[in-house]
Amino acid sequence: VRSGRKVALAAVKNSSVDLIFRRRPLDYFSEAYDPEVTARALDLIHKDRHDLTVVYHQEYDDCLHRTTVRSEPALAAARHHIEAFVDLAQAAARAWHDRPYAIMFCPDHGGHDADGRGTHGDDIPDDMEITHFLGIFNTPGDR
Prior knowledge:
Blueprint: E1 7-12, H1 16-20, E2 27-31, H2 34-47, E3 52-56, H3 59-66, H4 72-95, E4 101-105, E5 112-114, E6 117-119, H5 125-128, E7 133-137
Parallel strand pairs: 1-2, 1-3
Antiparallel strand pairs: 4-7, 5-6
């Protein structure tokens, strides 16, 4: 933002990511839940008015707190996040085919089971050591 870039944040309403960046000069798009966040992000990519679009989904976090980090509902939620990311990456490839761009899949934390439910926030490897994925596309041939 300080360098003059226009930033959009599409997130589940009242989620931590929706609230943590408030009071910064960003374009905020607070949506009911993950499908609406994805739809908003697809629209933002299509309209191409921002230099950076941050997209936050919440289903996995909700599921791990209700169940455990590797329960069937939590794993299904993780699959939903991946499916949404694929849709967003494909939209970016179509919208930005003529210029360099980057896409990232960046979970904000890991998780572990405690007392029969999933949780996070501890200074332990399961919570802190997470994998991020980055794709940088410089020319149309890279896609």
